[in-house]
# Entry
Amino acid sequence: MNTAVFHATYGDPATALEETEVRLREPEHLPRERWVHNYMTLARVLALWADGRIAECRELGRELLPLVLEQEDTMSLSATLEFLSWGACTEQEHAALLLGGAATLWRQVGTALWGVRGLQVRHTEIENALMLNLGTARFTQVYTHGTRLRAPALVDIAQSARNGAGMPAPPADDTNALPPRTPREREVVGLIAEGLTNRQIAERLVISTRTADTHVVRILTKLGVTSRTQIAEAMGAEEPPRSEQ
# Structure
């Protein structure tokens, strides 16, 4: 984690904005510098959100999205969609859909939000707020729809508010949506689908193996199944969507 992300995460967005402003003046014509430029830009998106400058956060994030999509920079794409979802919480279904899309991309990266505890806590707070406001069933429906979209479609949707277009809503009777689950259980379901054992899930989520066992048992109970394979089948036996090359 760079210092700009640290400052934005832990209560000093002004310092983060100053740092990103300086770093973004540096050359970006070399491949590595282009990656650094992307990273500092998304750190600035986060800092603007943390500073309460939501309109600027969303504008900069939308500008970054097509660039990182073209460059196949999955990490920057994941983070930008994540932070845009945070900035869209007054448009709750839009936010939930982007959050679901970001979750699929983070699984491709390997670690959500770089494993930064402060960001993960904020992610959970926002997810819980959306679930409360939308209702668990509708949140799960929209979030799940987002997880199934490909990266170009997610970028188009993220930019739709700027262009005055409405977000394409998932069908209200979507029978493929999973039963209501907590945010942590959704993470566990995704890791089960990747083939991780309970111990590996515990290590990935930084929880005890016993806690991971408990989550798996609850998921089995909610889905009415008896095996990990059946969990994947209950999810539609679909491979997580990938970014188009």
In short: The chain has two domains: 3-177, 182-245. Residues 173-177, 237-245 have pLDDT under 50 and may be disordered.
